[in-house]
Amino acid sequence: MTTARLVYANESGQTFDHPYLEMAGSSGGRWKQVEDDILIPLPPGSELFLLPHRIPVGYDRKKKRFVKVGEDLHNPQNKPQAVAAFMAPAYTQILSAAYHSRQKAPILPLFSYTAVGWQEGQFVVAGVRIDPSVRQDIDQFDLERLERRAKRALGLQGHNRLIQHLGTCALTYGCPAAKNYFLGRWEAPLPTSPQCNASCLGCISLQEGGQICASQERISFVPSPDEIAEVAVSHLQEAEEPLVSFGQGCEGEPLLQGKTLKEAVRLIRGQVGAGTINLNTNGSLPQTIAELRDNGLDSIRVSLNSAREVYYHAYYRPRGYSYSDVRGSIRAMKSKGGFVSINLLTLPGLTDEEGEVEAIIRLIDETGIDLIQMRNLNIDPEWYLREIGYHSAGRSIGILEMMKRIHASHPQVDFGYFNPCLNTGK
Ligand code: SF4
User: Fold this and answer.
1) In the prediction, which pLDDT does 426 show?
2) Whose Cα sits closest to atom 5 in ligand 1?
């Protein structure tokens, strides 16, 4: 039961709360009633999206059924449109938005679509703050100070192509990690690879199929080990909770630049021992992971849409590697004492389905993962489930219950959103 009202919009994007229908949510395409205990105020820095050619769905408590809102009680001329929230970083969705797609509904762009409602004078969402770190909170960014510091660094280090690239990321694309680099704190990005050996359905840097657009431009060059080390060493020496990460949204797979990365890590660790050197990766090359660890890599984050091979392959469409290599990479890093996170691309209905939860627990049993980063899968849920050939195999127990179940079987495994700094010592 909830007091949150259904939110919908007219074609020009004005939003309204429905006079009596309750907010509803969706889990793997099944509409769900919403309880107040899974609602939080819309986090600062989030956005509201109007979903074209999608009819909003609410819950009628009197009639005890879900209702498609085809007509606007405020203005019968208007065709109500569904609305969803794209939550700010550090928040995980518990239910997706509830709607009915009209025949000619276009595929939605690469964002996540969380259920949103109106309650006591504010927008609320079915989500949870999964990570206390404020590193990407919108109120942490003083844009004037950022511009000043970035322009100064770009002027002083015109010779370094990677710094120039990060300048565009920070000042044009607004990448929070690139902004934190120029603000000298927390996690800094080290993109290196124009190529990839997978072609994910939801790749944000390269979309070959033409059905949807990539939301980021992919880096077009491989920086040298010296250029990488110049960025990383100063950051690890000076930053608060210093951390540098290979594998960013604006590149392909960093493991394909193994030789460059090994040399860069060796150069970095030759100059600074503090902070954490992390690699965000698809985990395709276990041998390269082992060699990077020997050179000083501290942690890896392996991205997974599912711990079930059939859905992993259907989403990643790997070229020249398989899901067993991914598990091999995790084992290689753990066997050498490294720290391992999985970047679990979360979609309510699939991620919390009993079959999926059991598969994740088996993966932890087998490999000894340390942290599960619950990142919302940025994709049109209906298109995604169709494309991976998803068939429900059991109940969806809810995202919060899923975390409880994993924690009960593996209390040592944490949940979060960001890569941790494992060694703040200067
Ligand atoms: S692994 Fe990363 S870069 Fe490669 S296709 Fe997938 S999302 Fe894109």
Assistant:
1) 55
2) 199
For residue 299, being part of any structural domain is answered with yes
Q: What distance in Å separates the CA atoms of residue 307 and residue 419, rounded to the nearest whole number?
A: 20
Which residue, of 97, 129, 161, is where some domain finishes?
Answer: 129
Domain tally, the chain? 2
**Cβ neighbourhood burial of 68 (10 Å; 0-12, 13-18, 19+):** middle
Please state, in angstroms and rounded to a whole number, the distance separating the CA atoms of residues 79 and 14: 12
Query: Contact 219/250 with Cβ under 8 angstroms?
Result: yes
Q: pLDDT tens for residues 34-52?
A: 999 999 999 999 999 999 9
Question: Residues 164, 296: one domain?
Answer: yes
Going 181 to 187 to 193 to 195, the CA torsion angle's sign is: negative
Dist. CA 38 → ligand 1 center (Å) = 32
Same domain? 106 vs 144: no
* The predicted structure's pLDDT at residue 425: 64
Evaluate whether residue 425 is within a structural domain: no
The pTM of the full predicted model, rounded to 2 decimals, is 0.96
Q: What is the distance in A from the centroid of ligand 1 to the CA of 251?
A: 8
How far apart CA 247 and CA 254 sit, in angstroms, is 6
In whole numbers, what is the pLDDT of the chain averaged over residues?
A: 96
Tokens of 142: 């003083």
Nearest ligand 1 atom to alpha carbon 251:
3
201 C-alpha vs ligand 1 centroid, how far in Å?
9
Question: Residue 42's domain spans which residues?
Answer: 5-129
For residue 76, name the pLDDT band (cuts at 50, 70, 90).
Answer: confident
Contact between 128 and 231 (Cβ < 8 Å)? no
Task: Select from 195, 196, 284 the residue to mutate for testing ligand 1; criterion: most ligand atoms less than 8 Å from CB.
Answer: 196
Q: How far is the CA of 160 from the centre of ligand 1 (A)?
A: 25
Q: What is the dihedral sign for C-alpha 229, 235, 241, 243? A: negative
**Average pLDDT for 393-405:** 96
185-190/339-346 β-pairing: unpaired
340 lines ligand 1 (CB under 6 A): no
DSSP state letters, 363-401: HHHHH---EEEEEEP-S-HHHHHHHTT----S-B--HHH
